[in-house]
Each structure stands twice: as C-alpha cells, then as structure tokens.
C-alpha cells in the first residue's frame, strides 16, 4: 500500500507537469520556427532506511523536437527560412550569442536588424545595421544586399551576411527566453559556434512551428485520462486502508 501511494501520487504530480509542456507546445503551434518540447518519464528510487523498494516518477524535458516545420512562402524580402539543419545567430538579452529558427526579420528605427526583438548577428559576430528606407534582399547564403532609396540598380551593395551555424553534435538546449544555446560535452553551455557555409536560407519564406495541434490535443486527452487513473489508484489505496482498519478493530 505504501508503494502504491508513492507510485500514484508521484505519477499524478508529473502528469500535471507534462500537461504544462503539452499546453505550451499547443500554444506555440503558430509561432514561427518554434520547436516542440519533448517530455519523458523516468523512475527515481526513494532514498531512506530499509530496502530500495519504493520509487517515484519524474518528468523531464530532455530535448526538443528539431524536425523541420513546414515552409510557407510569404514573398516578404526580410523573411527567411533556414532550409534544413541549421540556425540563425542572434544576440540574447545578456549579450551572449544564441540561436533561433525565427526568420521573421524586422528593421527597427535605428536600422538594427532584429528577430523576435533580438539583434541579428553577422558572420563576424556583430549586430547587423542596415541603411534606413533601403530595398533589402537576402541571398540563400545569408548575404544581405541593400539599394538605397532613389539610387540606381547598379549601385546595390553588400552590407553584411547572416551568421548561419549548423547543428552541433552535442545538440542544443532551449533557454528560458526561448532561444537555443549549444551544449558542451559536460552538459553545460558551449561558446559561440562557427559560421557554417553549407547552411542555406530560403528568402521570402518562413518556417512554421513543427507542433501538430492534433497530436498535442490527443496528448492532452491521454494525460487527462492517465491523471484520472492515478487518482483512482489513490482512492483504492484509501479504501484498502479503511478495510484494514476495520479488520484491526474487529480483532
């Protein structure tokens, strides 16, 4: 009965955590370049005196689903979709280099190129600043060309290149700001990645979220049923305890 309570109670608690992960995925089903968070359960032994006969359930989100989402053609010059494995480098709020698949680029009032509010980095690691009111085009290798307002077409000039990096062998870790960082072999955060000239972007397009709303809804329903099963197990444990108490009272 003691093991039953531990199993049911820990299971119910972790199912609630899993529901939060699935709900977050579902909420980002229309977020550009979003990668669904994965969720997994594992058994954790309960430390204490006596034999190791008890275990609780732990829910973890070890990785994200890095599969590519559908690419949608928008026709907008500043929209880019990373075609295949790879990432777009941006500057996080703390000044460090981070990575995203959100290619919905914007130019602020100072000419700074941004993705999701974060400055986009060039291949030299510095934020990209573009001429205001210029006509901008982005090549498949990330090279940015600009034509100033009123200038002749033959005066178009290269003003920078997007820093595009590949998928590291040790993978990526999502931070609390939604950006990804490279993972070092010891599980920590690695330094800035090098430019990968094999990564290509598709201009005038955006990568949609790889979350399937249908699968997310099915997952939420499944979790709700599993939670109900855990609650039923707790109720059964309570009934067993009541029956045992009655037998003790009789004797």
Give a topology summary.
Blueprint: H1 2-27, E1 40-45, E2 55-60, E3 71-73, E4 80-83, E5 87-91, E6 97-100, E7 105-107, E8 113-115, E9 118-119, E10 135-138, E11 143-147, E12 157-161, E13 164-165, E14 172-174, E15 180-182, E16 200-203, E17 205-207, H2 213-250
Antiparallel strand pairs: 1-2, 3-17, 4-16, 5-6, 5-13, 7-8, 8-9, 10-11, 11-12, 14-15
Helix pairs in contact: 1-2
Report what the structure shows.
There is one protein chain. The protein is built from two helices and 17 strands. The protein has 251 residues and is of the alpha+beta class. The chain has a three-stranded antiparallel sheet with strand order 6-5-13, with no helix packed on it. The model has no long low-confidence stretch (mean pLDDT 85).
Structural class: alpha+beta
Largest sheet: 3 strands, antiparallel
**Given the C-alpha coordinates, what overall shape results?**
elongated
Radius of gyration: 25 Å
Tell me roughly what share of residues is in helical segments. Answer: 25-40%
Total count of helical runs of at least 4 residues:
2
Write down the domain tally. Answer: 2
| Spatial order of the strands forming the largest sheet | 6-5-13
| Helix and strand run | HEEEEEEEEEEEEEEEEEH
Query: Multimeric state of these chains?
Result: single chain
**Could you tell me the strand content as a percent range?**
25-35%
Mean pLDDT: 85
Calculate the terminal CA-CA distance, rounded to whole Å. 21 Å
Low-confidence stretches: none
For the secondary structure, the number of strands is 17
Protein name: Flagellar basal-body rod protein FlgF
Biased composition (Polar residues): 192-211
Keywords: Bacterial flagellum, Cell projection, Cilium, Flagellum
Main location: other
